[in-house]
């Protein structure tokens, strides 16, 4: 094994040997299983399969029921139902058999779990440097014939590998749990979903990956931010707190400054790349190229600051 | 031929406006055990942190086998093994996992070498236990193990005897002498207690307020010059008469008698005491000159 991989192995070993890391996976699994249980119990309108020769009739019946319900209840429910009805009509008009609810659909919906994956990655990223200081083990780590740059790099890469493993874990357990509870739709199912062009018939697997992918941008940026804060201040609580605060208030910050031109340079105006797919951009004139450039500049800045502080500072007593 | 393993040239450290290390010069040869003695706050740990590359020097240079820690970090660090202050290892990992973790940071440290080091420090039985459960003595041994995994030319131990009982100290002394004699390792060992490490050192440097104020070989002292011997006896008056007869200088300290005499004379004096029916409970030699000097230099506040 090369030096880089041996050091990466060390960092991952130290991460995964700890119980607190395993708790994260248990929490994720519990939520995924719990979500499936709740969905199958409470969402009685979920249809896991439509019959091949009779689905048109089933949809028509469903629509009639929804119309009736809308008339009785009105308001919010009517609004929700009307979107389901127009989706059903899209199926009927275009002769596309609707996809029954299943593992992929469940996995697609679980993209919201990525904020939890982000939180866990932030916690790992905020601790990977500062914990060594807290434990006092930094001394025995930095007296080896290895540059500090290499140590810092392998620590950062270890955090990214943790994020990737956790992401894959979330994806695979959602698929597995979804398949057990709702059945498996196949390897490349297509579904109808609303986009800026109205309803479209799209690959569910493709949409799932793109949804997870869009979330990864924010995950990486906030993790890099937490990594930097904890490297500079050697304090993981501060790093976790700041990163979570910014993650939660990012959109509000952009909204508050939206009328100024400089707002487009705020990190959080650029982390949601989906805005270019939907066309609903934060500030007029922003482009995908612009956002990618801003993201790279922030990323390089965060890494450069971490590097400067980690490399230049004395490891003195407490 | 012994080569210089560690060389400090006018090493200085300033933190803020305070000059903590004021220009230290010293060199340690291969196979030599060097005691770095000074009261708490004298600057021992700061000097060691600079030698191992944890702190930057504000002046001077440190060379390990001729390689500067500043300009040739990797080549210099390859030849250093160290414990800096407490041996802090990963408490949630076993001794074995800790050692493998450090072994992966060098080229060519095999599993067999790790096993060899474990048996050298006698940790075979607990190597698969979590380090969090180790006693201080076990952690010190694991600390030494991680420091010698890669067979460094220079071993630095910062206060390794802290918190150890006399048996533990004796054990450390044995490893260190073995490493120095067998493997020609240069050892720098710091302590604020002269008495604890004096016996394992070839040479001693005394540091105070960031300066090495005195340096001397240990063995010349103990062989050439007079010792102080503490006599613990039941009949102090009778014993005093015996010493006076032999024209020896006596110092009294509470109910103990401290006498200056040559090492070779100890058996004779004891014999005379017994002939006079004095009941002897203890005869403890201390190396007079070094001890005196240390007390004098440091104001006597650190010898316990
Ligand atoms: N990071 C630091 N900032 C300021 N002063 C320090 C720092 N570290 C140590 N000192 C001071 O330097 C002196 C030497 O400390 P140290 O090297 O730990 O002594 P020793 O190891 O001999 O007990 C002490 O006066 C201590 O207060
Ligand atoms: Mg110290």
TrEMBL record, chain A:
Keywords: Membrane, Transmembrane, Transmembrane helix. The chain crosses the membrane at residues 21-42, 113-135, 156-184, 212-233, 238-257, 288-310. Signal peptide: none annotated. GO terms for cellular component: plasma membrane. GO terms for molecular function: ABC-type transporter activity. It comes from the Bacteria. This is ABC-2 type transport system permease protein. It comes from Piscibacillus halophilus.
Automatic annotation (TrEMBL), chain B:
Keywords: ATP-binding, Nucleotide-binding, Transport. Belongs to the ABC transporter superfamily. The keyword Nucleotide-binding applies. The keyword Nucleotide-binding applies. GO terms for molecular function: ATP binding; ATP hydrolysis activity. Residues 6-234 form the ABC transporter domain. Pfam families: ABC_tran. This is ABC-2 type transport system ATP-binding protein. Gene3D superfamilies: P-loop containing nucleotide triphosphate hydrolases.
């Amino acid at each position: 094994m090369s030096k880089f991989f041996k050091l990466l192995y060390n960092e991952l070993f130290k991460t995964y040997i700890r119980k607190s890391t395993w708790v994260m996976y248990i929490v994720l699994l519990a939520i995924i299983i719990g979500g499936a249980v709740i969905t199958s119990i409470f969402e009685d309108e979920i249809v896991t399969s439509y019959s091949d020769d009779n689905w048109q009739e089933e949809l028509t019946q469903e629509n009639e029921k929804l119309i009736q319900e809308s008339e009785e209840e009105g308001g919010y429910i009517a609004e929700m139902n009307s979107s389901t009805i127009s989706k059903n009509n899209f199926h009927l008009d275009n002769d596309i058999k609707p996809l029954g609810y299943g593992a992929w659909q469940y996995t697609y919906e679980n993209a919201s779990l990525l904020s939890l994956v982000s939180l866990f990655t932030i916690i790992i990223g905020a601790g990977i440097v500062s914990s060594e200081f807290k434990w006092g083990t930094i001394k025995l780590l930095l007296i080896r014939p290895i540059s500090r740059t290499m140590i810092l790099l392998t620590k950062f890469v270890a955090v990214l590998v943790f994020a990737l493993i956790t992401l894959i874990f979330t994806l695979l357990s959602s698929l597995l749990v979804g398949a057990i509870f709702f059945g498996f739709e196949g390897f490349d199912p297509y579904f109808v979903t609303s986009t800026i062009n109205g309803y479209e018939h799209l690959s569910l697997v493709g949409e799932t990956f793109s949804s997870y992918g869009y979330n990864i941008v924010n995950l990486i940026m906030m993790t890099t931010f937490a990594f930097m804060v904890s490297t500079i201040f050697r304090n993981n609580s501060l790093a976790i707190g700041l990163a979570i605060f910014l993650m939660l208030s990012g959109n509000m910050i952009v909204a508050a400054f939206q009328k100024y031109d400089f707002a487009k340079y705020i990190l959080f105006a650029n982390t949601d790349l989906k805005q270019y797919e939907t066309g609903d951009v934060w500030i007029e004139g922003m482009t995908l190229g612009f956002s990618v450039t801003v993201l790279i500049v922030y990323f390089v800045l965060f890494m450069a600051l971490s590097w400067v502080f980690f490399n230049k500072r004395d490891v003195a007593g407490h | 031929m012994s080569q210089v393993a560690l060389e400090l040239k006018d090493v200085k450290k300033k933190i803020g406006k305070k000059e903590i290390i004021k220009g230290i010069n010293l060199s340690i040869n291969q196979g030599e055990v060097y005691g770095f003695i000074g009261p708490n706050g004298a600057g021992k740990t700061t000097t060691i942190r600079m030698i191992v590359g944890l702190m930057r020097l504000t002046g001077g240079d440190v060379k390990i086998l001729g390689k500067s820690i500043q300009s040739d970090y990797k080549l210099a660090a390859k030849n250093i093994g160290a414990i800096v202050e407490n041996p802090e290892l990963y408490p949630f990992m076993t001794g074995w996992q800790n050692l493998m973790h450090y072994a992966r940071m060098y080229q060519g440290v095999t599993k067999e070498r790790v096993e060899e080091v474990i048996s050298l420090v006698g940790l075979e039985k607990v190597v698969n236990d979590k380090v969090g459960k180790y006693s201080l003595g076990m952690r010190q041994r694991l600390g030494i193990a991680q420091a010698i995994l890669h067979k460094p030319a220079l071993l630095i131990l910062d206060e390794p005897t802290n918190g150890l009982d006399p048996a533990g100290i004796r054990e450390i002394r044995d490893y260190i002498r073995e490493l120095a004699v067998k493997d020609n390792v240069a050892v720098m060992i710091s302590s604020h207690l002269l008495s604890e490490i004096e016996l394992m050192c070839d040479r001693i440097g005394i540091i105070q307020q960031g300066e090495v104020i005195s340096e001397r070989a240990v063995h010349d002292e103990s062989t050439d010059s007079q010792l102080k011997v503490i006599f613990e006896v039941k009949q102090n008056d009778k014993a005093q008469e015996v010493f006076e007869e032999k024209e020896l200088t006596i110092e009294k300290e509470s109910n103990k008698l401290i006498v200056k005499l040559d090492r070779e004379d100890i058996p004779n004096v004891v014999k005379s005491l017994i002939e006079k029916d004095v009941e002897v409970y203890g005869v403890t030699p201390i190396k007079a000159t070094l001890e005196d000097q240390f007390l004098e230099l440091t104001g006597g506040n650190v010898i316990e």
